[in-house]
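Hi, here's the filled form for the chain we discussed.

Project: internal
Contact: R.S.
Residues: 193
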Amino acid sequence: MSLPTVKSKAKLEVVVERPTPYTFDLGLLLANDANPITTSTPAETSSMGVDALEAQLIATARDGAQGLINQLLTTCPISSTAQGVLLSLPPPSTALPREKPLPEPKAPTKWEQFAAKRGIKPKTREQRHMKSQRYNEETGQWEKTWGFNKDGRIDRKQKGMVQQDWLVEVDEKKERQEKDARRQGKAVKGKKK
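And the returned structure, exactly as it came back:
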């Protein structure tokens, strides 16, 4: 039994020679080719089953990628770590344009104008923090004055302590007024015209 012979493609050169050399921005992995693309001369790699222009573009792109890789391997520092081989890129030197123009500064609101006129400054994080908490001398801890776990209620409940306001007196007069208002509301709703 004989093994089938596979025709191997000829290896392309690693060194890329261009009439005008490439300009590189290694921080952005950019290779800029100033040479014009000629469509009149057929490309060398026309065996790919594509037309001459497509083959010329493929060959130009391959040369650009090969030139960029050559430049990266010769100029950038390479280090070996436990994760693998790392290549450190320099900072980008080409300024990329923005997709959209810079936003215009917003006009100040009426409150901002008033605050600037009166010299009112926004509170700092520490000031807001001090307003939302107070020191409990019994427990020796800072407790929130509002929101979740207000006054450390949840902590006390978990420790089995009794709630501070476990007995609340009911105002009988107010309770009676609410009850009468509910009865009148039902009576009004129940009337038929």
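Let me know if anything looks off before we file it.
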